[in-house]
Amino acid sequence: MLGLRELVKAETQMVCLTAALRPADEAEFGRLVGLPGAGIGVGAGAVRWFRSNTTRANVRYEVRRYNRGEEDKENVVAALVEEKQAKYKEAGGGQIVVYCDTVKKVDQYAKQLGGLCYHRNVGEAETKQGVVRQLREGTGQVFTATNALGLGVDAPRIRVEVYVEVVRRLRDYAQEARRAGERG
Length: 184
Fold this sequence. Notes:
EC number: 5.6.2.4
Protein name: DNA 3'-5' helicase
Family: Belongs to the helicase family. RecQ subfamily.
GO cellular component, one term: cytoplasm
CATH architecture of the largest domain: 3-Layer(aba) Sandwich
Number of domains: 2
Radius of gyration: 20 Å
Structural class: alpha/beta
Enzyme class: isomerase
Low-confidence stretches: 39-44
């Protein structure tokens, strides 16, 4: 952000693009980078905002219920992942990300599902980059992760995202969930 502020001060022409900035956050973004009309910067009116519809008709949200007394959550998740793997195998492939709220659960589901895992303790930067590379290139099919994976990752082959627990931050969920329909 500070780098952007320096570019604004130098009156550099810029285009800032995002798929996740809420209209309510535009003023804060402008203030942080010193955009004109945000109380800081050069000539008022030099900033133009463009918005487009962010609704994705190809994204479907579904809640799967299970009986805690009769079913094991891990087995319910595994069955769902298997079902989706079969569906998308027939449709030419696709990736599945299972989001968990703790590192321990990420590791547990990765072991059970035979997938790659991503969280803050998964290893050195090189290890993390390797997981992200497989996600981006479509070479891995099932990934388990904390929300650390969700931000700033462009992965065009994600077709299904499973949230094992209730989402804690709606903004993170919106950022993560949009990926499943990004490329159709």
